[in-house]
C-alpha cells in the first residue's frame, strides 16, 4: 500500500490528487482520440474538452469553498452529511456536460456522440482513481470497481458505433455508476447521486429513441442490411490497412544495413510510393465508411449532408458509404478538381 500524502519539502501532496491528475490527462487523450476517430474537428473538440475542464474545475472549487465555509459557520448543516469526495466528483462530471450543448448548437454536432465520448473518458478517469484508492486504503470495493470498469470500458469501446447506437454508451455508463453507488460504494449522498445519474441515463435514452423514430427515413430491414455491409467493409479495410503497414518497404527488417544497388533503391522508393498511395486511399474509404455508420447511429443516414435531400436507394445499395446525393457528390468532385488545377498553376 502507498501513503495518503507525499512530502515534497514545501508541503504534503495528496496521493489521490496525483492519480486524479493522471486520470484527467488520460481523459483528455481519450476524448481527443475518440473524437478524431468519429470525424470531429479535433481542434474544436479539444477546445470543448478544455472549456469543460476549466468550467467544472472553477465551479467545483466554488462548491469546495462553500462546504469549507459551512463547516465553520454551520457545522450541523445537512450538506455536510454528503461525502465530500463524492460531491466533488459528481460536480465535475455533471458541470462538464454543460458546454457540450453550446458546441452542439454552434457546430451542429451530435450531442449523443459527444456524450458517448465523454463517458469513455470518464471511465478511464474512474479506472485510475479507483486503483489509486485501492492502493491507498486497501478497500476491496475499489478493486472490484476497477475490474468491472475495465470490462465495461473494453465492451463499450468495441461495440460503440456498431452494436450500440450513439447515446447508449452514455446511458449505460450513468446506469452503471448509479448501481455501483448503491451496491458497494455506499457513502453519504450515494442514494441522491445514484438517483440523479439514473434519471440522466433514462432521459438520454428517451430522447435518443425519440430522435431515431423521427429521423429514420429508410425501412428498418434495408437500413440493417446496409449497416452490416458497412461493418464488414470496415473490417476488410482494417485488415488491408494492417497488411499494407506490415509490408511497407521502408519498415522491412535489415533495411538499415542493406547495401543495395541504386536500381534497387529506386525500385524500393517506387514501391514505397505505391504503398503509401494505396494506404491513403484505404484510410480515406475507411473514414467514409465510419462516417456513414455514424450517420446511421444518429438517425441521419439516407439524407444528403450537403443539401438535406434523400439519397436515392439505388445509390445506397451500390455505394452504402454515400453521405451525399449524386448531384452534390458531382458538384463536390468538380470543386475539388478546380482546386487541384489552381494548386498546379501556382506551383508552375
Task: Write structural notes for this entry.
With 348 residues, the chain is mostly helical. It has two domains: 211 residues, no CATH class; 115 residues, Four Helix Bundle (Hemerythrin (Met), subunit A) (Up-down Bundle), CATH 1.20.120. Helix content is 74%, strand content 2%. Strands 1-2 form a two-stranded antiparallel ribbon. Helix 1 packs antiparallel against helix 2, helix 2 runs antiparallel to helix 4 and helix 5 runs parallel beside helix 7. The longest helix has 36 residues. The termini are far apart. The C terminus is likely disordered.
What can be said about this structure in brief?
With 348 residues, the chain is mainly α. The chain has helices at 15-37, 42-73, 84-95, 98-107, 111-137, 140-159, 168-183, 190-215, 220-246, 262-297, 313-318, 326-347, and strands spanning 5-7, 12-14.
